[in-house]
């Protein structure tokens, strides 16, 4: 089969890779209907995370081709959506809704789903079957559910976005835009998207942002305070992961408010005294996308949401290198790859 390998920073190629096979009795093998490039794939691409000859990709939807002998609920022919951590969905952590930290979690990034086929560990716990074979127009939205929508949804849920509340989203990448969509669906009254990019501002408005602020850092905090009676927002989602964006998010949250942080942090160090006096609720980390998948798939199936709009470039898997370049140069918000 064909699959994407990152040999070194900036060096991505689609090449022949061994076909996956069932290795454990709880595995499934899927044929991908679509895959995509994640904002987090840019960290190794830019040399900020170490990389050497790594298979890439952790987002996937497709058709089950084969299952191991212990797989009970998923069967060949099912169209399935999974997320970036395989999980058993039965352990005490999974049952509490934190499948991304399952005691038996398997990282899908190590498998590399930017490929024609993929082995999925813990298939019964990890994969969620759609109600039927999706029509082509739903493919991008189901693809978004695999990571960015689920991650944005977790951010908005952790931030307790809801009726009567103001939600601020720091970060206008795909996850930030999906957090805007989630806050809207969860009933937030006012949604403030922090963005200075006209195309992303337009998408944020499409997904439900009521206000757009271009300021960053402490200027961004001041602008949020001006819109919130000087006290900050009830609910803030951080979707970048830098020192500046984390502090901006913390400082934009009112005392007693909630911050959901879902940007993978790089070199972030938080001052303890400031955290102490911020007096806010914080929950973040790798999103337990599996918790939300049945709900998100149903909303997509019912045409209630169209998260697939976040993909603004579609390329064949063979042209993955161009997709990485487009995202690195911010010519594309998110790239869908067709295998
Ligand atoms: Zn578990």
Quick summary:
With 339 residues, the protein is α/β, with parallel strands linked by helices. The chain has 12 helices and 18 strands.
Q: How much of the residues is beta strand, in percent?
A: 25-35%
Which structural class matches the secondary elements?
Answer: alpha/beta
**Uncertain spans:** none
How confident overall, as mean pLDDT?
97
Describe this structure as you would to a colleague.
The chain is an alpha/beta fold and 339 residues long. It folds into 2 domains: 2-147 and 288-338, Medium-chain alcohol dehydrogenases, catalytic domain (Quinone Oxidoreductase, Chain A, domain 1); 151-284, NAD(P)-binding Rossmann-like Domain (Rossmann fold, 3-Layer(aba) Sandwich), CATH 3.40.50.720. It has 12 helices and 18 strands. It has helices spanning 42-45, 92-95, 123-126, 139-145, 148-158, 174-185, 198-207, 217-227, 243-252, 272-278, 289-301, 320-328, and strands at residues 2-8, 11-16, 28-37, 54-55, 60-67, 79-82, 85-86, 106-107, 117-120, 128-129, 166-170, 190-194, 211-213, 233-238, 253-261, 281-284, 313-316, 335-338. Strands 3, 5, 6, 9, 10, 17 and 18 form a 7-stranded mixed β-sheet that branches. The chain has a 6-stranded parallel β-sheet with strand order 13-12-11-14-15-16, sandwiched between helices. Helix 6 (174-185) links the parallel strand 11 (166-170) and strand 12. The structure holds zinc ion. Zinc ion (ZN) binds at residues 87-88, 90-91, 93-94, 102-104.
